[in-house]
Amino acid sequence: MQSQAAENLNPPAVSSTFTHGIVDSLPIVIGYVPVAFAFGLSAVKLGFSPLESIFFSCVIYAGASQFVITALLSAGMSLWVSALTVMAMDIRHLLYGPALRHRIVSRMSGGKTALWAFGLTDEVFAAATAKLMRNNRSWSENWMLGISLCSWLSWVAGTAIGALFGNGPLEQYPVVEASLSFMLPALFLSFLLAAFRRPQSLTIVAALAGALLGVVLFSIPVAILAGISAGCIAALFQPTATETIDEH
Question: pTM, whole model, 2 decimals?
Answer without folding.
Answer: 0.66
